[in-house]
Structures are given as C-alpha cells and as structure tokens.
Design a protein that fits this description.
This protein is of the alpha+beta class. The chain folds into 2 domains: 129 residues, Sandwich (Jelly Rolls); 76 residues, Arc Repressor Mutant, subunit A, CATH 1.10.10. It has 8 helices and 11 strands. Strands 1-8-3-6 form a 4-stranded antiparallel sheet. A hairpin with a 2-residue loop joins strand 10 and strand 11. Helix 5 crosses helix 8 and helix 6 crosses helix 7. It is elongated, with a radius of gyration of 19 Å. The termini are far apart. The relative contact order is 0.13.
Length: 228
Amino acid sequence: MNIIDLIAGIPLFRGLPKEQLEEVVAITTDQTFHKGHTVFSEGEEASGFYVVISGQVKIFKLSSEGKEQILHFVTGGESFGEVPMFAGGRFPAHAETVERSRLFFFPRAFFLELIKKDPSLAMNMLADLSKRLRRFTQLVEELSLKEVPSRLAAYLIYLSGGENGSGDLELSITKGQLASLLGTIPETISRILGKMSSQDIIEVRGRKISIMNRKKLEDLAAGEKLIV
C-alpha cells in the first residue's frame, strides 16, 4: 500500500480530497523504529506529531524516583504528540516503542500551514483529541476512585470494544505494562485474573481472554466487589 493510501485511511485525514492528501504526503516523514526506541522524552521541544502505521507506542510519565506510570498505548492509525501542536511548547510525557513500529511524522510548522488552507484538518484533530480526553477522564476516575479489580474489569471491557463489543480480546502488552497502566503490580493483576477465571467471568489462554460473563464483568467495572 502506498503512502497516500495509508494516510487516507488515518482517521485524522479521512475524507480529504486527493489534492489535500497529496499535500499531506509531501510533508510526511516515514520512520521505522525497533522495540524500545525513545520517540521523544518529556520536556523535549515538540517539533511535530506522529501517527502509528504499524506496531505500538507507549506514552508514560516517570516519577522523581524513576517509577513508570503508563498513560496509554497508541496503535495503528492513532496519533500522538499533538497536544503542543497549536500552542507550541514541549512534550508533556515520554513516548517509546513497545515493538518494532512504523511511524509517520508530521512537522508542526508545515502542518499548521495545511490547517490554514483547510480548517477541516483542525476539526478532525479536535474530534480525536476530544475522544482521548474522555478516555483520560475515565482513567483518572478509575485510578483514583476504584479498586484494582474494577479498573481491570473496565479495561477488559474497553479492549473488547465496549459494551457492544465481542467477547474475545488479546492483550498486546505484558502484565507488567498492564499493571503500570492500572496503577498496581503484576502479581496483583495475575491474582485478579485468576479469581475472575475461577468464577467463570473470563477464560484466560495466555494473552487471549474470552469474556464468559459480560454482565458480571460490567458489574465489577461499576464497583461491585470481586468474591475472594
């Protein structure tokens, strides 16, 4: 698939006419990184933003003690690093590839020129950022108000596509990364997954998880206690 077709499939650029897609292609830098590559660090000057074409990138913060708190993972078709796009400034978090990843980089100065020509680009970007803000708001609520079983249940529902999603999902991250994302430790994640499995709420086969009792999982996500 050529670059213009790849860009046309990115939600941020969906619906743009061919002439405008060609202008986007002209400013695109195609980059491939190995697993564990630092895309940018917190505090680094934000010279543009990225879109994941393949692979996965984790966005995270580090405490003064060096403890990692994962904010979210970015996968195919999703953009990241665009928060300073309009105001300028520096990246507010770190970004690192979780696996070999292909990224498209869009330099800020050139992209802003495209926005001036076609404001629909800005509307697409704002719509995408609004969705992410809702997800972050939910994440803050889960981390601050809910117990770990509720956080994990909510995340499994999210991975399965929400309330109307399928009953099957696959974890693309390690238990350590999942624990960091949910604000706990890997041993706690393993223990809770084991309890959910023993109570026929889910079935775990390696990284593949089948939701056996969605109603019960939704009740857990809403705050119901997990039977010990």
